[in-house]
What we know:
The chain has helices at residues 46-54, 77-81, 99-107, 116-123, 138-150, 168-183, 195-201, 264-278, 292-300, and strands at residues 6-17, 20-31, 35-39, 61-66, 84-87, 156-160, 187-191, 204-209, 212-217, 230-235, 251-253, 256-261, 283-289. By secondary structure, it is an alpha/beta fold. It has a six-stranded mixed β-sheet with strand order 5-6-7-3-8-9, sandwiched between helices. A four-stranded antiparallel β-sheet has the order 11-12-10-13. The chain has a three-stranded antiparallel β-sheet with strand order 2-1-4, covered by helices on one side. Helix 4 (116-123) packs across helix 5. The chain is elongated.
Amino acid sequence: MASSDPAVVVEGLTKSYGHVRAVDGVSFEVGRGEVFALLGPNGAGKTTTIEVLEGFRSRDAGQVEVLGLDPAVEATSRQLRECMGVVLQELAIEPFLTVRRVLDRHAGFFPRPRPVDEVLHLVGLEEKAGKRVKTLSGGQQRRLDLALGIIGDPELLILDEPTTGFDPAARRQAWELVAGLSERGTTVILTTHYLDEAEALASRVAVITGGRIVAEGTPESLGGRDRGACRIRFRLPPDTAPESLPVAVDRTMQGAIEITTDEEIAVLATLANWALDHQVEVVNLTVERLTLEDVYLRLVGEDSGDGADSDDRDLT
């Protein structure tokens, strides 16, 4: 549960690379113990924003506070790093060291690290503890990245595309781990292209495109999901014409009837009473609101289809 004291405060963050403004006046707060997802297409400004929070990238303008410290101040950089765990898209890990040796060494950087065996269990690498890093599969290496992020028992954990390369079972395990960390009070900032991941984990999400945040809220309310129109779909028996329905039909497609409305309770009540009165079987009735993917694609527009493999680092 997030407290009223924010773990991260960003106000008017701006960063340019030459003539390209990668981040343009970004502002948001993250409460302690909260899971906050930053969503956006490649090149939108996510990675630059995250790197500023981590202290890896300087900013041109704006105010940034992470766990009460400015990540740009060198005098307190070590203090901040001891309280922060980071899982980047790519980590440089010595390929000839064993998994346990990598974790043992990394644990030494923190004042109160978690036990290595506990971390190995949490990320599902117990059986690989004695194996060299170079022998791990891509998904297993990503688990090791996650292990390195949590070994220091951080107050703040930054996850940049943490489950890329995971199979469905491993993704679920990672989700459970992140949820457990949040319950213990760890603040998590997550970037992901998996919208179901953001919906499952985040208490709030922000969508960034073109270097600006264009929407922020809970996954359920983002972009008016909780207030917008819903779609009611069903089928009628072959001997019942759609024209006989007591409600307006938006379209029929391959026998399926679709009604779009922002008064779903009234429409469903009218439809149910009509079906009971006329003894008509309404088949495969479903009610759907806009998905998070629907809202996301509407917000990012054409930027969502750039298909580029590059991210903000390519602007340096």
